[in-house]
Specification:
With 375 residues, the protein is mostly helical. It has helices spanning 16-32, 35-50, 55-64, 69-83, 88-93, 101-113, 116-170, 179-214, 216-227, 232-253, 258-268, 272-286, 291-295, 303-315, 318-374. The chain has two domains: 16-99, no CATH class; 132-375, Receptor-associated Protein (Up-down Bundle), CATH 1.20.81. Helix 7 runs antiparallel to helix 8.
Length: 375
C-alpha cells in the first residue's frame, strides 16, 4: 500500500486536519494517475533499462509517450530528479503517494547491488499482485455496498412519496396508530421538511465516519473488532498474512536485513493488530530472538505457518518457506472472498426485505384496522 503522504515535519505532530488534507491530496493524485498506469511505467522502465538504455533516456521516452498530461508530469518529476544526480529510489520517493515503502526498498536494494533491472521487475510484480488483491476485495465489497444504497433509496422513496398519501387518512387520530406507523409518519415529515440539507449532512457524516475509522486512532479501536466479524474477519486475516509474508520473503530474497524486512511487513499488514505483531517481532529480533518465537502460539498466525517458519529459520531456507506460505495464503484469500460473498449476499437481501416489509406493514396495519371499523 502506498504511503499516505509526506511525513510531517520532525517535532510537529500531525493533526487530524493535516491527515485529512493529505488524504484528499493523495486521493486526487491517485485518480489522476491510477496505480495501473504506474505499474505500466515501472514495467516498461525495467525492460528499457535491461535493453541498455540509461535511466534518464528511458524516463524521457516514457514521459513523451505518456497517455495523459498528469502521467507525463509524474514521470517527468522522476526524470528531473535522476538528471539532477539523485538516485532513482530518492526520485521515486518524492512521489510519496505513488510508491509503497516496499517498492522503494526494492529499488534501493537494486541500486546497492547493481541489479536495478531485476529489482524493478520485482517492484512491478509486487505492484501487480497488490493491485490484483485490492480489486478482488473491492469486488467482494461492491455487492453489499450496492444493496445498502438500493435499500436506502427504496426507504427514502417510500417515506417521501408513499407515506404522505396516507398521512391524511391516518391524521385524524394519530395517537391510536401503531408505534411503527407513527414513527415512519414522523420520519416522513422530517425528510420532506428538511431533506434538502439532511442528505448532504448525512453524506458528510458517512464520509467523516469512514475517515475516522481509517485514522490511526480509529484503527486501534476498530481493527480488533473487524477481525472478529464472521466471514469478513477471515478475509482481513487472510489478506494481512498473505501481504506480510510475501513482503518479508521478497525483502529477504532481495538482500535486505531482517529488521528492515520486518518493518516493511508491518507497513503493508493493513490491520493494526498485525502491525503490532510485526513490530513486536522486530523488537524481539533486535534482542537476539528468532522470528518464529513471537509467531508461535499467537492467534493471529496459524500454528502450521509458525512451525514452518521455525523450520525455515533453522534450515536457512526461510525466504523459500515464506514464498510457499504466501502461495498458500493467496488461495486462502480467494476462499475467504467467496465465503464472504456467500454470507453477505443473503444477509443483505434479508435485511433489505425486512426493512421494506416493516415499512409496508406499518401502512397495512392501520388500513386493516380502519376496514374492520367500517365493517
Amino acid at each position: 500500500m502506498s504511503s499516505a503522504g509526506a511525513a510531517p515535519s520532525v517535532g510537529v505532530p500531525e493533526t487530524g486536519i493535516d491527515r485529512f488534507k493529505t488524504s484528499v491530496r493523495v486521493a486526487i493524485k491517485r485518480m489522476q494517475v491510477p496505480q495501473e498506469q504506474i505499474l505500466d511505467v515501472v514495467t516498461q522502465l525495467a525492460i528499457m533499462f535491461d535493453t541498455g538504455l540509461n535511466l534518464s533516456q528511458a524516463l524521457e521516452v516514457l514521459e513523451k509517450q505518456a497517455a495523459t498530461p498528469q502521467l507525463s508530469e509524474f514521470v517527468g518529476g522522476i526524470r528531473r530528479g535522476v538528471e539532477n544526480g539523485k538516485p532513482l529510489s530518492t526520485s521515486m520517493a518524492q512521489q510519496d503517494w505513488a510508491f509503497s515503502p516496499v517498492a522503494l526498498a526494492l529499488v534501493r536494494a537494486g541500486e546497492m547491488t547493481g541489479d536495478l533491472g531485476t529489482m524493478l521487475m520485482k517492484v512491478a510484480a509486487f505492484m501487480e499482485r497488490d493491485i490484483s488483491t485490492r480489486k478482488k476485495v473491492r469486488s467482494a465489497m461492491s455487492y453489499p455496498a450496492f444493496m445498502a444504497v438500493m435499500a436506502t433509496c427504496v426507504v427514502i422513496f417510500l417515506l417521501v412519496n408513499v407515506f404522505p398519501k396516507f398521512a391524511e387518512l391516518f391524521g385524524d387520530q394519530p395517537d391510536k396508530l401503531p408505534g411503527p406507523t407513527r414513527f415512519f409518519l414522523n420520519l416522513s415529515d422530517i425528510l420532506r421538511a428538511h431533506g434538502a440539507w439532511l442528505f448532504p449532512v448525512g453524506l458528510l457524516g458517512l464520509a467523516g465516519g469512514i475517515w475516522a475509522i481509517r485514522s490511526p486512532e480509529g484503527r486501534r479501536v476498530f481493527d480488533p473488532f473487524f477481525l472478529r466479524l464472521p466471514a469478513f474477519g477471515k478475509l482481513i486475516k487472510a489478506v494481512s498474512i498473505s501481504r506480510s509474508f510475501h513482503v518479508l520473503g521478497v525483502m529477504m530474497n532481495a538482500g535486505l536485513n531482517v529488521l528492515e524486512a520486518l518493518q516493511l511487513a508491518a507497513d503493508v499488514a493493513g490491520n493494526h493488530r498485525y502491525v503490532d505483531l510485526w513490530m513486536e517481532t522486530k523488537k524481539k529480533v533486535e534482542n537476539g530472538h528468532d522470528i518464529s518465537e513471537t509467531l508461535m502460539d499467537n492467534p493471529l498466525i496459524p500454528p502450521a505457518e509458525a512451525a514452518m517458519i521455525s523450520l525455515g529459520e533453522r534450515s536457512g531456507t526461510l525466504p523459500t518457506v515464506l514464498a510457499k506460505i504466501t502461495g498458500h495464503h493467496e488461495k486462502k484469500v480467494e476462499a475467504a472472498i467467496k465465503a464472504f460473498v456467500a454470507v453477505i449476499e443473503p444477509a443483505m437481501t434479508i435485511i433489505m426485505g425486512a426493512v421494506v416489509a416493516l415499512i409496508v406493514s406499518s401502512l397495512i396495519m392501520p388500513m386493516f384496522a380502519i376496514s374492520q371499523v367500517m365493517k
